[in-house]
Amino acid sequence: MGSLPDLTQNKTVRILEDAERHGYGVIASIVYNVEHILGVVKAAENKRSPLIIQVFPWQVKFSDGLLVRTAADAASRASVPIAIHLDHCQDEALVKLAAETLPFDSIMVDMSHHEKAENLAKTKELVSYCHARGIATEAEPGRIEGGEDGVADTADMEGVLTTPEEVEEFIATGVDFLAPAVGNVHGEYGPKGPNLDFARLEKIRKQANGRVRIVLHGTNGFPDDVTRACITKGVSKINVNKLVLEDWNTHMRENASQMLLTQFMEEGVKHVVAMQEHQMDTRMSNVSLHHSFSPSEMAHVIVGSPAILLCAAMLYLALVRTLRYNRSNAVKREYPTRESYRNMTLEEAWKIQSRLAEVEFPTVFSSSVFFALFKVFLAIDQVEYRLTHHQTYGIPSVSRLLAATGQLTNVRTASKRAADTGVILTEVLLHHPSDPRAIDGIARMSFLHERYRRTGKISDEDMLYTLSLFVLEPVRWTKRIDWREVNEVERCAMGTYWCWLGEAMDIPYTALKSHGSGGWANGLHFLDELEEWSLGYEVGNMVSAETNKAVAKHTVDIALFNIPKVLHAVSFDLVSCLLEPRLRTAIMFERPSLLASLALKVIVALRKLLVRHFFLPRPYFLRKRWFSDELNADGRFNFEQYIAHPSYIRPTFYKRWSLNSWLIRMVGGSVPGDQGAEYCPQGYIITELGPDDMRGKGEHDMQATRDRLSRNGRIDCPFDRW
């Protein structure tokens, strides 16, 4: 092959020669990811110490060399000398591949799983192969018991400690670094700790006489004084794994579900830095750097590595893609076929729906329910107009009723009505169907409607239409606006839950096709029929009227109440873009401008792109919270969200003085605690929710509903057995 390359400029060789010459040890740290690389490099720079970054063959195969290239790039930009080393490579093909294609400075040729003669022959061949490519080599004579990650255990091989003969035999292979067995092991040492043969180590150093550098493996559990003693006996490279990463592993276990990913990664790097610096302090590697390194080696400064940034970005995007669809894929795996949908229980359906509302689509779900009020108010209006004018067309009747009573033509009363509706709905939807708070919410909702149903002012069809809006609008809005649409299993869950809720409120389903003819196969079947009927109801009943416009205008005013007035015209145009054409015609809103329509499309498309590909999913502990879980000192619950006025919001320091609160004050809005008791900062109890004339009434009727629902036998019963 001709003359071999000169290894005097090899980075690992130069680092270890300097360490041996000046009597200190260099930490060789195993890394498994980018955070480990950043941590050990930062520690080396902080301590002005040389460093060897090590990987096992597993890391090479797992990342297809990407982690090695990332480490090499970080080393090239560091302000201290750093070498890259492949440890315990037992695969001959991988040794050659690594030497040919990856930026290693040195490779441990570990043929110890072969018999001695074959071990020496293969080691010599591979050492020569590496030297021809400018790469230094390491080998392990004798037997260091135990096993590294991805490395075969060689405990059944002959020999335990390195002998003088083995030292000569391995030096003859041309190896550059020797890792002798002097009682050290890969793994744990047990209660007695390490028992090293220091005399043997001293003899090996003298026998080597500068022909090879001495490396120490199996340092887990080494007291600091033992490591220092090894360095005084001639060890110049100290391999560490658990000693540096154990603290990082603990951080992972304890905080993986407690921190945002960015904070989690940053804190993880800090743990690696701290442990690496400790090793450099206690194991005598944090010495001043010596003149044997060239000025160019000492002049590197980390100014940001494109390779590291690219690797981190790719890993982050892959993580987002995996976690983003994790919940959706999980429910699909649980219910893989339409046939399996019939097995969904009410409890399972509630869990799926509440997860959608609290963590998967919290913004769009809540917004869609608010805008569903447009249609609800129109539906209610139809009732009064139909009764007083004997007409069967137009949903404008309730808007006349509401306009006349002032319930929705005054922003304050409209805001109170919207707040009460929101409180009751969230109490029902976000508590388990057997929870007393959910049952109380259903009982209150049933009581508030009962007097109108009993007198014929609200028909069964009106109730069914209202029910359809609260289940269908979130599905529709999610498809239009959010990063993904509600999948079929989730729609089945919503249909299952709302089918039960309608029955709990004594809403008959006689208007639906399958009622009385075998029923529905599953919740999805029910939801599809409900949507078909609901759309037909709108076509036949939703017509324009001036009272519709007045009520809708004041409803929009609620949504825009805390937005600067200078932005109201633009915001109103955008709201108009969000409404369906039929609804926009019924409430007599002008068609939005082309610019507003285009702006909304761009905003929606950009939001979908960013959330789908760049934002990690919201963890459960950061779920959108709507109400307090426990009673306050007044024996009431507090609400946590508001649009116009802070009804039922407890005036905490944060809610009064946060940045958002200051912005609300600047536009003349109210924050929790303003206006004394007007917005009920003490909180709410279910029996007080609703119109003022119904406050505190209905306990007897509510108790009857509670008694009926407390006997609910469908909680854990599959849909097809209802």
UniProtKB/TrEMBL annotation:
Q: Which Pfam families match?
A: F_bP_aldolase
- Entry's Gene Ontology BP terms: carbohydrate metabolic process
Q: Which InterPro entries match?
A: Aldolase_TIM (IPR013785), FBA_II (IPR000771), MPAB (IPR046366)
GO molecular function list: aldehyde-lyase activity; oxidoreductase activity; zinc ion binding
TM segment ranges: 298-319, 361-380
Which keywords does UniProt give here? Answer: Membrane, Transmembrane, Transmembrane helix
**Protein name, UniProt field:** Fructose-bisphosphate aldolase
List the top taxonomic levels of the source. Answer: Eukaryota, Fungi, Dikarya, Ascomycota, Pezizomycotina
